[in-house]
Sequence to fold (492 residues):
Amino acid sequence: MTWTVGRKGFACLLAAAMLLAFGAARAGEQAERALAAARQLLDSGAVPRNASIRVAFKSGNIAALLGPELELQKEWEQRSGVMITAKVIPQQPALQNLKANPDVDLTVARTHEFPDLLEQGLVEDLTPMLKEFGFRIDGTPPQGFIRPRLQGYLGDKVVAIPADGDVLILYLRRDLLESPAERAAFRKAYGRDLAIPATWQEYDQLAEFFHRPQKGLYGTVEQRERDTAWMFWLPRYLGQGAPYRQLFDDRLKPLIDSPAGVAATESYVRTVRHSAPEILGDGKDYSYTTPIFMQGKAFSVIFTIAGAKLFNSSGSAVRGKFMAVPLPGNRVGGKVVRSNVPIYGNNLVVSSRGAQRKLAFLFTMWLTDPDNSLRTVGVRGGFTDPFRWNHLADQRIRDLYTQEALAVFAKEWPAALPPGTGLPGDGDYIAALNQNLWLAASGKVSASEAMRRTSHDWEAITQQHGRDKQASWLKIFNAGFAVSEPGAVSPK
Fold:
């Protein structure tokens, strides 16, 4: 098995989603059930009449999750009788935000943060509430979540309700790629046709060829700032083996100080030579890279599906000139092995210390209903991206993101693997990796030295947490790689 798209079967699922988007399931059923349950809690006296759900969202999530002009919040309050008190939290890990806000009922977390949040008892296991109120986190088209187990589960526990979709996509300048003059020049330089890259090596060649800073064009503006380094290294590393390359062995010995780890790091580092001069600067994340591509000053960028919404906007210089394509891969045993991971992505988690945990859960189910979630994804300036099958079929969403980009987005989900390390202390493991990748990208250490240092740092973190305990968590995490769901390909 390889973690590549099972194209025939997946195409059938996608077609079913697009043809039956609002037919097979009763639209709004999940939302109505959540409202009825909330009113029952009030009527029975299980929660006080003046109960308020305290939500804490990042500034980029407010418009999507509560609606433009708070229209979703107002509708929930009017129909349920339950008020919402909202606050804005910093762009920092959910672990820090939950510790700093013990009175919060509901907030957002990224998939790789689940082990720390669950291990430290900061979020609820939602499995009992799903059973109590009769909900399922379903992945079946035409309206189910695209990858519910990947985004919502840790082992057999439901840690979060999916509320965003952020796998990586490669964006290229279609006009340059299809230019007869560029095609002739590329063939003369490299002895092959100018085409969509199948491998990371081919992607590097494209970045090199189109890097013309003297003419205001960079080969790529793929992120290289320190804090998000892991997001762009991990797909390169996981694809070094079939079905995927593990980060640790069963006893938590790091496997990255190896030819596979060095090769992934060298691929990660090579793009710096063909990028914007400030690409390594702290804070130069997508807020720095995507405008450069949007202004027509780069040939390529790697970002989430949100990039398509930006690049397709009326003020974009590349509107109608860009294309979305799958991430490249690595040749392993004569085949190209591709992988992807959900990177940002804001899933909804219920705080274990909140006073209104059940109401927070019910609001979450109301918000992520197939119909209501279309309203969160459809916010033009919002940061919530498609995460249900019916989102891919809705014409408003297709007009925002382009049909082509959504089709690529859908096909990237089968290649998506669980992100991060899957271990308590994930933030520390990732911080060590990020720092050493940044040193390598800055030319301060070699790729092999970066992997040696990271391996040493990881061993120290494992010892701190306890090897046996970490091994038990790793077993749970690795089981997630083998889970079969509609948007995934299972190992055979």
